[in-house]
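Q: What changes when magnesium ion is included in the input?
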Amino acid sequence: GPLGSPEFPGEFYIPPEPSNDAIEIFSSGIASGIHFSKYNNIPVKVTGSDVPQPIQHFTSADLRDIIIDNVNKSGYKIPTPIQKCSIPVISSGRDLMACAQTGSGKTAAFLLPILSKLLEDPHELELGRPQVVIVSPTRELAIQIFNEARKFAFESYLKIGIVYGGTSFRHQNECITRGCHVVIATPGRLLDFVDRTFITFEDTRFVVLDEADRMLDMGFSEDMRRIMTHVTMRPEHQTLMFSATFPEEIQRMAGEFLKNYVFVAIGIVGGACSDVKQTIYEVNKYAKRSKLIEILSEQADGTIVFVETKRGADFLASFLSEKEFPTTSIHGDRLQSQREQALRDFKNGSMKVLIATSVASRGLDIKNIKHVINYDMPSKIDDYVHRIGRTGRVGNNGRATSFFDPEKDRAIAADLVKILEGSGQTVPDFLRTC
Ligand code: ADP
Ligand code: MG
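A: The predicted holo structure follows.
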């Protein structure tokens, strides 16, 4: 069939080869901003038995030299609080549930100790038996974690692989059967590989759930259960869970998959990043478009606009393009090749505005996102926290503007007030009275 035929969307899409150029590999991260040192003032809560002491410097974490070199090349000077707490916990062999605000370095918090451990205590690499399995709720986040893992494993012999939907299965299988220490995956595609016995977990030493609350909520929990309790799963594996939000009922369920684990929370679980300046406007559905144009006319560069539906995303993208704002979009009905192209165009600035559904709400770490606009308010407060967390990362200033439609968004008002208060923002009166 043709590229992306309806029966097998993406069956023939072979993603571009990742770069091997050091400059490109190490330029992906966001430089830390003026609020970075304020991280030290955030209260830390740690529970569990015999919790290892936090580290204060990357060099006191017993990480392998090659990993430290890559940390230096990435421009990291001081570990963030979640890194200070998590690295020694993971290195000591414990399971972990870790909560820390958006943009505070959770990826390196798990990658650094894991990659270091693989080098320090190497196990022989067998084909189709990854030693580390990292799952992510979206394809683009999987790609980002893959690039981060390649960065921290740079110039080591560690092989990093990725499997995700919307792409050629056969191509990914060729990569996997060459053998990978670390596999980053979206759950559906990972299970395809597992069901066809191309991937088994006999050698798996670490299972990581990034955006863990999302991985364990209704949409993914059955898939995750199948993966984590798979008959081939090596019993001695460590399980690590990371997120900025973690509803209590999902924490309880997560506990079933963890043994004698350490719980770390930096700040309020589910709190918004206080470096993002949040503005809420009362806007009804008929006034949204002109309000958006008004905002973008002042400043359009690096704006991500979240909408509710895929159709709404397409509609708004073509509307803005007509108004001469270079705009692209990312949502679940676009081909995977188009989704990746959209992110590339937005990252390199050839597209100033990115219209997105919630597929882009979690985890993405994009340098030039200056402004997050909730054109449609999400229905859940945690989704709001993740969306606005695409900006204001690693201590940089960020800005978020949300359209609150009193007809439709009343249900989220009380939670929104709490989030605004908890992150030191002013609460508009209409939110308290609606
Ligand atoms: P989170 O997963 O908590 O949202 P990420 O892991 O995506 O955050 O990291 C956010 C950004 O911070 C990335 O660009 C990353 O390179 C950068 N970063 C992570 N740790 C540090 C550090 N210790 N010092 C400086 N920058 C860091
Ligand atoms: Mg993350």
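Observations recorded in class: Residues 1-6 have pLDDT under 50 and may be disordered.
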